[in-house]
Amino acid sequence: MTDPSPSSVFERITLCGLGLIGSSLARAIQASGAVGELIGTDHSETVCARADELGICSHVVPSLAEAVQDSDLVILCVPVGAMGELAQAMAPHLRDGVIISDVGSVKDHVTEAVRQHLPDTAHLIPAHPIAGTEHSGPDAGFAELFENRWCILTPDADTPADAVAKLRLLWERCGAKVDEMTPAHHDLVLAVTSHVPHLIAYTMVGVADDMERVTENEVINYSAAGFRDFTRIAASDPTMWRDVFLTNRKATLEILGRFTEELFALQRAIRTDDGEALHQYFTRTRAIRRGILDAGQDVDVPDFGRRAAKPPSD
Amino acid sequence: MTDPSPSSVFERITLCGLGLIGSSLARAIQASGAVGELIGTDHSETVCARADELGICSHVVPSLAEAVQDSDLVILCVPVGAMGELAQAMAPHLRDGVIISDVGSVKDHVTEAVRQHLPDTAHLIPAHPIAGTEHSGPDAGFAELFENRWCILTPDADTPADAVAKLRLLWERCGAKVDEMTPAHHDLVLAVTSHVPHLIAYTMVGVADDMERVTENEVINYSAAGFRDFTRIAASDPTMWRDVFLTNRKATLEILGRFTEELFALQRAIRTDDGEALHQYFTRTRAIRRGILDAGQDVDVPDFGRRAAKPPSD
Asked: Residue A276: which CATH number?
């Protein structure tokens, strides 16, 4: 086994799943020097081969049992619906005292699905880095994905404090800011800030695709800022998002209920020509945008930075 | 009067309203060399003074009557709800044969509101450049705003073809691609690609602002891609958007009805655990995104180009 350098946080980390998040995390961990040896594995042989070519891990090990057996941290980077099965498959091969974490967008359901399979000696610390793009696969990842983004940990009261501190430090070394909350509160917050917005974007793009009196060319050519941003959101991985909605059903349905209530109120204002109500509503929402810019969670440039950005050459 | 250069399309153009679109158009027209003399005016003295400082027009003329009286093209760059009143105020001062155009996001209602005030000798050619950012005011404009974006003209059958051709050429000289359609069809297309997406984004940001169990700090810090993009859309000018919804009421309400119908179907799929239906829906919407990229109406870079973009220095 490689000797950890003095600044290592873990001796040996295994990332299970090398898609957008897993491969970004691999790059970020390697760049941070926070690990002695980084093992990557994936159920897809193609992904394993590609990750090996990219050289983003110390070793890519296709066998799950071999990949996890000597690690002091194992992070599950797979769609939320696949976490339970993956935990069950790796459980017999885990070393005593291992820390198990994940990067799933839902925490309550996933925590239960994973915990039931783990040995008593393992410490489960669910995590969710709030970062991503609409792209998928090992080539889509980049080391800076987590820089200045938040990572939420949802440990329970029984988790040893030093295990939580080590995982927190790893994420900080990858550039993230770290917060802790309960799984249920996480799921409510994310339903508001991510899950329902994604469902709405998918729906609006679906409506456009369905219109008989508006051609697909018209939708594509005249996609103004609003719709163009929706299509970017709605291009995200279908499997990941199916799992998010099915496993965060309660909070999603609650927030959807609030959303349709407000939408109907605005619809009524349009129908009854109540310009004052519309103007007040639209003015209020500007303040939240200012807060996001002040918190450094986005940049504020003309045309959303697209003038500065160059399309990929391929 | 300045002699037009050989490549001028118009001798003298007046832009009424020097906000984001008006001031961008001023910069684009000046850069194109398509006009002899460019006059800017605005009902706000502050905006006139700032536009004068910025030097984006040949002359800034605060008096509307003086600003329009010798121009062969006058473009109304004000919120949709202000177009009728502006047309009425300028009508007595227009020169014979003048072309009147606008940049409003709604065409059917605006066309009627403007046409009723114009003298018979004026040629009305409504226009809508599909371009913008969430910023407002003369400082927010930039000459490249219309580059490779579409501008839709909605002339009626009686408009002289040479007048339409000149306006088309002006927009092409500003970098835009030009299409023509009826006002009513324009309003339906834009309800799908812009108006309803904006209303939805405003609504979702309003819901987040209203939640008692989720703090504003949580909303701001954990604003993932979905919500973060919504806040950008929902930061757009409240007056402009109030006017859009009130004047494009019919198409907005029709598309909203379609939207809620589809949203309820997805909500039902979540409630009944129908993962297959969700996955199929989310897969279909990816194709539209690909079409928009292929049409050059957006760029496809990791993190939406934000890594490459730098916040403004002020």
From this structure: 1.10.3660.10
> What's the mean pLDDT in A104-123?
96
**B-contacting residues in A 171-190 (Cβ below 8 Å):** 177, 179, 185, 188-190
Q: What is the mean pLDDT of residues B31-56?
A: 97
**Is B314 an 8 Å CB contact of chain A?**
no
Q: Measured between CA atoms, how close is A53 to chain B, in angstroms?
A: 20
Query: Cα(A299)–Cα(B306) distance, rounded to whole angstroms?
Result: 7
Question: Of A181, A196, A226, which closes a domain?
Answer: A181
Q: In this structure, are A226 and A271 located in the same domain?
A: yes
Whether A310 maps to a domain, the answer reads: no
Does residue B62 belong to any structural domain of this protein?
A: yes
Looking at the complex, does the CB of residue B289 fall below 8 Å from at least one CB of chain A?
yes
Chains A & B: contacts with CB separation below 8 Å: 374
DSSP H or E stretch at residue A83? helix A83-90
Torsion on CA atoms A245, A247, A248, A252, rounded to nearest 10: 30
Domain that holds residue A292: 185-305
Model pLDDT for residues B146-171, shown as the tens digit of each residue: 999 999 999 999 999 999 999 999 99
A156, pLDDT greater than 70: yes
Give B 224-263 residues with CB within 8 A of chain A: 224-236, 238-239, 241-243, 245-246, 249, 252-253, 255-256, 258-260, 262-263
Say if residue B217 is in the same domain as residue B293.
yes
Type of residue numbered B308:
A
CA A79, A85, A86, A91: dihedral to nearest 10 degrees?
150
Q: What is the pTM of this model?
A: 0.83
**B190-215 burial string, b = 16+ CB within 10 Å, else e?**
bbbbbbbbbbbbbbbbbbbbebeebe
Interface touch A234/B205, C-beta < 8 Å: no
CB distance from B268 to chain A under 8 Å? no
- Which A-chain residues 144-173 have CB contacts (< 8 A) with chain B? 144-145, 150, 152
Find the farthest-apart pair of alpha carbons in chain B and give their distance in angstroms, rounded: 72
Question: What's the mean pLDDT in A225-237?
Answer: 80
